[in-house]
Amino acid sequence: MSNEDYLKDISEIKNLMNKSSRFISLSGLSGVLAGIYALIGAAIAFWLVDTHSDGKLYIFHGWVFWTCMAILLMIALLSAVTGMLLTTQKAKKNGEKIWDNSSKRLLFNFLVPLTVGGIYCTIILSHGRYGQTGGLMLIFYGLALVSASKYSLGDIKYLGYIQIVLGLIASYYPGYGFWLWVIGFGIMHIVYGAWMHFKYDTK
Asked: How far is 24 from 154, CA to CA, in rounded Å?
């Protein structure tokens, strides 16, 4: 057996080990669509606050505040449903199970920091500290991505690091929290999703 054959066998064994321990059918296109949903939602929220809150982004009250919260939940729901549909489609195409030990570990490690972050942001909002929530959302979402990356495509940890850095900047400059949120959840999702799509989905 030649050296090339040995290298080919080692590469195949490595791929099999990765498939058995990691869920690798995440869809890059779902990331692009999540970013588009975030940009549309942010534009609607900006218009609402700009029109009905004297042009000051940090003043939320009454129906404007609750409408912005509803938009936020709608973005999260649409992104989750789109991600599940496209990822299921890709897993079937790859002959991979959508619900096995690797996907369970991925989901658990993603949801734990995300759920803790959601509860903490709700507590912060209940105390009226609206300026901190944009940075906190980015930080906890970034931590969720880094945590989940151990059980999926390792590349998603880089998106997590970017979200954490943006969140820390937003925490230091809370007046720019909205725009950093738009960059993190909107633009970075589109850029990163497109990169993942061309790197993995088109092969």
From this structure: 9
Name residue, tokens 């991505």: 145
Is-contact 188 20, C-beta < 8 A? no
The three-state secondary structure class of 182 is helix
Return d(Cα 136, Cα 161) in angstroms, integer: 14
How many angstroms separate the CA atoms of 71 and 49, rounded? Answer: 13
pTM score: 0.83
Supply φ then ψ for residue 16, to 5 degrees: -65, -40
pLDDT mean over 150-166: 91
d(CA 104, CA 111): 11
Instruction: Look at residue 59 and tell me whether its pLDDT is greater than 90.
Output: no
106/69 Cα distance (integer angstroms):
27
Q: How far is Cα 120 from Cα 141, in angstroms, rounded to an integer? A: 12
Nearest residue to 135 (alpha-carbon basis) of 58, 39, 32 = 58
Sequence-distant (6+) residues with CB within 8 A of 78 are 34, 37
| Band of pLDDT at residue 108, cut at 50, 70 and 90 | very high
Select from 72, 71, 80 the least CA-distant residue to 27. Answer: 80
Report the distance separating Cα 135 and Cα 169, nearest Å: 7
Q: Which two tokens stand for residue 156?
A: 């998603």
114 contacts: CB under 8 Å, gap ≥ 6: 140, 141, 144
